[in-house]
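## tool: complex_structure
## caller: assistant
## args:
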Amino acid sequence: MTTQTTPETDERLPAGSKVGIIAGGGMLPVEVAKSLSAKGKAPFILIVEGEVTAHLDELSQFEHETLALERIGNLVTVLQRHGVTHLVMAGEIRRRPKLSAIKINLGLLRVLPELLKALTRGDDGLLRIVIKGFEARGITIVGAQDIVPDILASQMVLTKTGPRKSDWPDIEAAFVAAKTIGRLDIGQAAVAIGSRVIALEGIEGTAGLLDRVKGLRGHGRLAGRQRGVLVKCAKPQQELRVDLPTIGPETIESAHAAGLAGVVVEANRSIVLDSASVIEKADRYGMFVLGLRREELP
Amino acid sequence: MTTQTTPETDERLPAGSKVGIIAGGGMLPVEVAKSLSAKGKAPFILIVEGEVTAHLDELSQFEHETLALERIGNLVTVLQRHGVTHLVMAGEIRRRPKLSAIKINLGLLRVLPELLKALTRGDDGLLRIVIKGFEARGITIVGAQDIVPDILASQMVLTKTGPRKSDWPDIEAAFVAAKTIGRLDIGQAAVAIGSRVIALEGIEGTAGLLDRVKGLRGHGRLAGRQRGVLVKCAKPQQELRVDLPTIGPETIESAHAAGLAGVVVEANRSIVLDSASVIEKADRYGMFVLGLRREELP
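## result:
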């Protein structure tokens, strides 16, 4: 725990605000918590049971509670008890609550209609409803990037090497495909090899997608084609405060294992976690990592 | 071999025409060949090396030659030598020729610019270019369904049981998604479970897609949801004479193994192979199979 210093004032986090973090898996909740703590604004962490594994110790150093998804009816009560005024939803939540296991209580009954509606949606639809629910209860949602601005992908080549001319048809095809499935709230990522999209992200997530591409390398339709790219971008209707497309060092590892030449993320609308390690790995593999704005494509 | 009888006249196959079949994998080339033979129009079969395995003996009963994809430059010459005037492309071709293995000859040099252009496209783009090439050389492309009309999916519930009311959100979501990725020439199929699309077809094909869905059944984001549907439909820009979406008995087996409640194909723009067996299997598993027109969806 850091010592409490004079809180910085910030447009998004006024004096007296207290930030809660709903922490899923991965590094992002840790980075947000550390950043807040460094600014003298000790956060409260709501650890989603079963989702946080690798970074549990680090998160447990902050004021925290653990909540099972099935006790979601208690969520607002817990946050209010800890004085939370602003909320960051950070990290991957790989499960959805099982309806049969949800604990019925008064808190739940209040959110039940929204919850049932939300659970039939894709990620984006679900999150919009959840956000509305929080805001109706006086808790303001802020993005992880509002607290740690340098996690946003810049509009530039991050690595020593950039895409070759021959990679651009892959980049364009995968970017269009990823935007399109994003519009349908299905996934955020696509892989193109040899100028055509060969695989699209569904609920398996980006790691699962890259695993599949690795398995498809021997596929006859690829006819031994090399290189290829992963493109990950925000949905056109993306709620920018939650669930931004995210890559990290393990994305580079998996993309390399899948034989891809590079990874493209949408600049200013994607998160690069542990970017030093992302760049170091990509450079080691001779891969490119590129932050691209949609407007840069033809 | 059937005995040659007086050829039936047919708008698409005039007297004196001879049909060639480029035979990929699966039952379709066999059904087309048998149907032609029964009509007294003995076909010539071009067996694509490595693609035809299960039905090689049946196809070899007809006048035939085997050609490796890499000898594609000889294709038109071979067809012309056998007097082919009309051509059916039937069955799945899972490979693409390896550029490095393509045999250079005069025939190839003539088609090379088209071929190189075609190989960077999705299936649909590739086939359009191939068709143009044949037609420029005086060979007319006809659809398998022009020869065996009853393989087209009808606009009806084929099975004893139809979709439940609760299956319709899955059907709608997957239909829209399949059409959308079809427009991008990526794939023809999508799977929805619990009102949302969870997986999209890429180059792995429908069998690979269903295999993946089977593996995703335990995924936390499905939260134990049951049922779900596979929808397979034609691309909006579908060339109707080649590569129509196709299901067969093994599609039902795989969809059942993936825990799906039913399979939907686009009526009049999809092929149901061995429909007796498709229906028998689906009925045994309590699944529905539905031919649906796009206009029936809201």
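## assistant note: The mean pLDDT of chain A is 88. The longest strand of chain A covers residues 19-23. Handing back to user.
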